[in-house]
Design goal:
Structural class: alpha/beta
Helix content: 25-40%
Distance between the termini: 22 Å
Shape: globular
Number of strands: 20
Bound molecules: guanosine-5'-diphosphate, 6-O-phosphoryl inosine monophosphate, magnesium ion
Length: 426
Amino acid sequence: MKVDVLLGLQWGDEGKGKIVDVITPDYDVIARFQGGPNAGHTLEFNGIKHVLHTIPSGIFHEAKINVVGNGVVIDPIILKKEIDKLIEMGVDVHSKLLFSRKAHLILPTHKLLDAASEQEKGKNKIGSTLKGIGPTYMDKTGRNGLRIGDIFEDGFDSKYDKLKAKHARMLSFYDFEYDLAPMEKEWLESIEYMRQLTVIDSEHYINQAMKAGKRVLAEGAQGSLLDIDFGSYPFVTSSNTITAGACTGLGVAPNKIGEVIGIFKAYCTRVGSGPFPTELENETGEAIRAAGHEFGATTGRPRRCGWIDLPALKYAIMINGVTQLTMTKADVLSDFDTIYACTHYKYKGELIDYLPYDIDESLVEPVYEALTGWSEDLTGLKSMEELPQSLVDYIVYLEEKLETPISIVSVGPDRTQTIPRKHAMA
Ligand code: GDP
Ligand code: IMO
Ligand code: MG
């Protein structure tokens, strides 16, 4: 068997958590491959709304194994809280949650460095979630990081002290005040807790699972436009959020990747700073935010909202090798008689249909095509046959423009508000 991948094609928050939960019954193993607690993946079922940060979104299903891969960075404090909350809800977490020994640890000083760096950048800040993601990946690539495997080895304390001292020297270069002691106490307690977790060589586990005919789904975090190489740099996260990240973040060879499910909203959002060509800084943007409850699942920040951006989506589909699409939040656009799709950009006097190197808003002007909206409540609909014709037209329009079939349409946050599309374009 090959590993299927589900990942975001925009700037994150496309609904990955919801859709992974919906398709988990088709899989045996769900594995996160990158990112960390900057992610907030929301699941809703039986009247419960739950947000996951580190743990894969298959955790609510019986008899499914959830793996946190080597490409993920883990904050022990957040992880412990996440596990405690699930146990309180009656989820038997320990029997089905495995961690790669090679996943890196977020230290309290990584979070401080994140905050100090953002403070220094002032109005040019990235808009980081301040979870310590950037500094942790910097230590990983700089070959200084601490990994989960280290917490079981002699000498962990001295390794920790050495890295902490290095961070203290780095923090002294910033005009930044901090009180490490309370954070450190909680972190060390959480490290002690982590020693009870099941830690494995996850690359072997995943490859053996594939050999044994088990179905594995790799769950992405963030979105393709936040990818460290291909996103709107420098306003990106610090990991490869694209399909290639599933190879390095789980130890899966490129020829073992199967379906790549790319997920996008029927419009577009972004949280944090950086270019967003189709952003609507007006009443329409506010109306989308209100209808879509567009507030960050991790930070609570209002998300910036705009129309769908087809050049950006085409780019994301290309670099990910997307084989099928999932469209979420179609229900949110029900309030609009007319909706718009950006098909091109005007860039330095030329009409282009790709994302240029410099996505500066003053240089890139979106060109829109107006489409008829559906003005109908979709949230109770269960099958494609029930969808209003103008929404079917929108789906077919997108499939043609994106040259990729849409196989799932989501019409609400709940598990049940999901419509499979069997006759998607071949
Ligand atoms: P993720 O990071 O990609 O998992 O997405 P988030 O959980 O951060 O944000 C998606 C938000 O939209 C969550 O509040 C979901 O409950 C919600 N959501 C997902 N799909 C739909 C949908 O089809 N319609 C509506 N209205 N909400 C949705
Ligand atoms: P999920 O998995 C949306 C954004 C931050 C910031 C930039 C860098 O829920 O889709 P970082 O903390 O990684 O240094 O922040 O990336 N960002 C996200 N935006 N969804 C996410 O995750 C995000 N994770 C990071 O807002 O602009
Ligand atoms: Mg999210």
